[in-house]
Amino acid sequence: MPVVRVNDIQMAYTEAGAGRPVVLIHGYPFNRSLWNEQVAALSGSYRVIAPDLRGFGESDSSNEPATMNRMAQDVAALLDHLAVPRATFGALSMGGYVTLAFYKQFASRVRALILADTRATPDTAEAKQNRAKQAEKALAEGMAGIADAMLPKLLTPETVSKRPEIVKRVRDMMLKTKPEGAAAALRGMAERDDQTALLSKITVPTLIVVGAEDAITPVADSEKMHERIAGSRLVVLQNAGHVSNLERTEEFNEALLEFLSESSS
Ligand code: MLT
Question: Among 29, 128, 158, 207, which lies 20 to 30 A Cα-Cα from 150?
Fold first, then answer.
């Protein structure tokens, strides 16, 4: 597993394939293994880079809030290390918050965007309070309670009842997350900027993907991004919730491959 020093942490990442670079940014509270099927599907034609964000997977945590800007700077430093000046970004949920923060700071390094199950708007006051409570809970009790509470919101009821392998995969990712990493990310997400005004400044090809039954970042959030990002494409995946790349892998990969091949010309 490659690891590189970026800013004040050691960051782990996966790199596979050759060609135009595609960076995949995972959501909360997951890690880069979220993208295993996308790495496999894309690495035949692209150079795929999937980091563990700070505090997740095999990357180090830091004690202060892991802000979206900070995580975006970590990704920029990783790309510097890999001599990648510009890449297409694919991101799910919190990964999308990080990717919009990346676009705001380093627009010239973004060739195209894939925003899956995410939103541009910030937390409400209530959501911020809930993040603070969840951070305390993770630190005091570990990840099991958080995983149990999140699972039914991450997956459709059908996946929860009929696809135990996906339930286990998602639960295991959450249980492997370090409580201090989860707490830092929760505090960082609570502080994130409203990126709504950024959307109309996005000039790169953009694909927006969302599960029709996403209970965390509902279809309406994707529709709002689609309205504001000129020329963007919106794909709504039926029978999928928030982790749409795992629940509808084939359709998700198909949408990505089609978009990538069109946006490369
Ligand atoms: C995620 O999937 O990254 C998170 O659920 C996003 C969030 O909590 O806002």
Answer: 207
